[in-house]
# Entry
Amino acid sequence: MNIVLLSGGSGKRLWPLSNDIRSKQFIKIFKNDKTGSYESMVQRAYRQIKKLDRNASITIATSKVQIPALNNQLGEDIHISDEPSRRDTFPAISLAVNYLVDILGKDPEEVVVVCPVDPYVEDEYYKAIAKLAEIAAEGTSSLVLLGMEPTSLSTDYGYIIPETKEEVSKVSSFKEKPNQRSCEEYIKQGALWNGGVFAFKIKYLLDLTHNMIDYEDYHDLYTNYDKLPALSFDYAVVEGEESINVLRFAGKWQDIGTWSALTEAMEETIVGNGTADETCEGVNILNETELPVLAMGLRDVIISVSPEGILVADKDQSSYIRPYIEGLEQQQVMFADKAWGSFKVLDVDKGGKTIKATLNAGHSMSYHSHRRRDEVWIVISGTGKTVVDGMHQSIKPGDVIAMSAGCRHTIIADTELVLIEVQIGRDISEQDKQLFELEY
Amino acid sequence: MNIVLLSGGSGKRLWPLSNDIRSKQFIKIFKNDKTGSYESMVQRAYRQIKKLDRNASITIATSKVQIPALNNQLGEDIHISDEPSRRDTFPAISLAVNYLVDILGKDPEEVVVVCPVDPYVEDEYYKAIAKLAEIAAEGTSSLVLLGMEPTSLSTDYGYIIPETKEEVSKVSSFKEKPNQRSCEEYIKQGALWNGGVFAFKIKYLLDLTHNMIDYEDYHDLYTNYDKLPALSFDYAVVEGEESINVLRFAGKWQDIGTWSALTEAMEETIVGNGTADETCEGVNILNETELPVLAMGLRDVIISVSPEGILVADKDQSSYIRPYIEGLEQQQVMFADKAWGSFKVLDVDKGGKTIKATLNAGHSMSYHSHRRRDEVWIVISGTGKTVVDGMHQSIKPGDVIAMSAGCRHTIIADTELVLIEVQIGRDISEQDKQLFELEY
# Structure
């Protein structure tokens, strides 16, 4: 089975656990019953797919900014089709499909299923996706969609009107976010929610893209990415297609783009260091810091803590978070997963910045320098080596490495390596970074 | 006017802003309208007294552990009578009165007023205290108490039953925490709350103490402090005294030992980095960290944040905090005011601990060493010098000073000096500290 997982944009609505570079699908809040540890939506989806079909070929369509987090959470042995710039789902899916052919060597006659990474689902969902792929392989229609059985009169979704109420039916029409009255009527007719899950033969979208713009292959398309229309796949492809089937799906499928929805999907009400007294009801605590959180006498409240801030919100009210987050004007990213590990900012002072970095075993930072700041590393635990202006040196806990502005440096972890980095300077900027080839 | 301010024990009920070494009277939450900055209860009381009588002689009776915080908040030019061990208010007041005579050279015929530092009061309160001192100076009774006009049928206070309802009256009797029905009756008779404010001639308590135990002077009493009975002043002195007057006081007098009471006294609902959306009502945010706090859709909730933790509590429920705090089993103090400045713990790791310390200009740490940890200082801002194993060295921003276990070290600030201290070791303990005389 070929799957393209769409891993979308940054989510401000789950602040402070999501930020400009960490989208909601990377927040680790779902307990993996097997390992006992917490996994993110991306990890959960990847695991669910591999459990169903260990030979599934998964390609993640995403933006460059997510690559370090994906490598951090899924390892480096994954397929990523990165968009050269942010456009919309049609260009992203089109590029991914060309990646399947030209990079992964897939036969254009094979089927691919495209689905967003962020709904909260159970294993049965991916079974339905496998079935979707089978239906698409039969070739009775150009496109096959997964239609979710509505569980409310929601006006937030697009509705698919099928010709029959059978499990697989031809699609009669689409209704984009109708009013509640119409929803009711459509649902009586057997309408389904459009969850953005599409199955088709690779060739179908290849041809469609070639008809749209002139390009040679994946690399050429990548270079000319901006020529692809910035349209949604629904608008650019689905709405113009006559031959579409839909497969009904009645299992769990939850959009968790708001705190209220996310907490509904949480199996445990408290993740991280937190306590709710016995007078609390419907309280969720999500704490990514070491600070103990104590909740007393609250009802239907989400408490969410990260190195970026603290949210305490009534669950209903929390969906109106966006303007407040924009008002916070976050100056900098306070924590992030990197391909080499992760970091968090411990302190920001007018004279400097203190960071804790954890490198995974076998990983290293880029070889780089800064123009406007000195840096000091103090090794807290682990072993490895540093390269400073070409000089290689083994390091162990307690070692101190001082680097003046302009000095090239990197650190290579043999074991997991924890260090404190103190940056000293008045105008510390993440942009002040010059990269070099490592000298051996 | 001689005043003894009783600065009492540690307050767990205002966690996380109070902790084992920072009592509630040191939390800076009261806006000083003149300076625009926030002051603590101790600072507020000190300022209020000095405003009324700039020649007032203020002695703070407290425990050793509070001395650094007192020096930090009030300066070093203050009088502190420190208890050699924690007992009760009678020994503490008795020692303070001996301090007045033997250390400050007061005449035993002078009057002293003793009052707790922690009620929230206005300037008028200290005017009443001055009047109390005048009444005591007249000598018509051995003791003069300040009696607060009850504002509720509270069963939490001791009641003073005066002979008459006049402003100054002889005391007829005391009723310790009566039931509500009795309260109502007493109040009809003109009863007052006992706020623990006592005025008397120094000689009165000197004689009483000498009659109780055998001692020479202040230093002798200090050494023999454990021989003084561990009793409250009310029990040891007031209840056995026949000749007591009470002065009625109807002004503001608020016990602020709980979050609910404290927030009532706050002039601003948000202190520190915090935002409450327009659907919040009765929400107070007290944030001593840099983390932005966002509150949405909450009602009558206190949000309190320090490097020690996060409390989110319904105001009524917050008074039941004690058992939960004990449950948190705080391993270590995460922030504190010191005589030389202040520190906060930025990170605790199994391999080490990272601290940010701010030294005030002209101050220095003790000259000390550690057995079981190495330390590194990185200067973020300011200038001064370090002494490491007797070697003096000037320091400036960016300087790195590495100290192995066993090495003696101190830092002396010429200007305000901010540094990051990284402690490296597996068993880091605050007890692992050996003090030395500084070598010149």
